[in-house]
Design brief:
It contains 5 helices and 4 strands, in the order H-H-E-E-E-H-E-H-H. It has helices spanning 10-18, 22-30, 71-86, 96-101, 103-116, and strands at 40-45, 48-54, 59-64, 90-95. Strands 1-2-3-4 form a 4-stranded mixed beta sheet, with helices on both faces. The chain is globular. 24% of the residues are buried.
Length: 129
């Protein structure tokens, strides 16, 4: 992956980490943080900050609020996803409402995507239990 990223976004990413949405906090503290692989929160990739990133399998996990379902949000997401896809990164989106109402199913889907890829657990870094 191209290691070029907008260094000016780092302070914003740190702020977003400290001020996660309710759904991001729930997914992070109640599932992703305990995965036996490294998961980054609010990771700067190119000109974007993604919600969660698993570098070992090039997977971005995005949680989408209502603004993502409006025309402008859909267009922005399309451009962002196209950019990330061009780097070989898969983007998986979940609605905030799914995190709130179907949390176990969201977690199971993420688990299946992570470990169906052949990823081997390796506790280290931010995502270590």
């Amino acid at each position: 992956m191209n290691d070029t990223y907008n260094k000016k976004l780092i302070p914003n990413a740190k702020t977003l980490r400290k001020n996660m949405t309710k759904e991001e906090r729930h997914l992070w503290y109640d599932f992703l943080k305990e995965l036996p692989i490294m998961v980054h929160r609010q990771k700067v990739i190119g000109p974007y900050i993604v919600d969660f990133y698993i570098a070992s399998i090039k997977l971005v996990i995005e949680l989408d609020g209502s603004q993502h379902y409006e025309n402008e949000g859909q267009y922005t997401d399309y451009k962002r996803d196209a950019y990330l896809n061009s780097l070989g990164i898969t983007v998986q989106r979940y609605a905030n409402s799914d995190v709130n109402r179907c949390f176990d199913a969201v977690c199971q889907d993420i688990w299946n995507k992570v470990f169906a890829s052949g990823e081997k657990p390796s506790p280290r870094g931010e995502g270590a239990p």
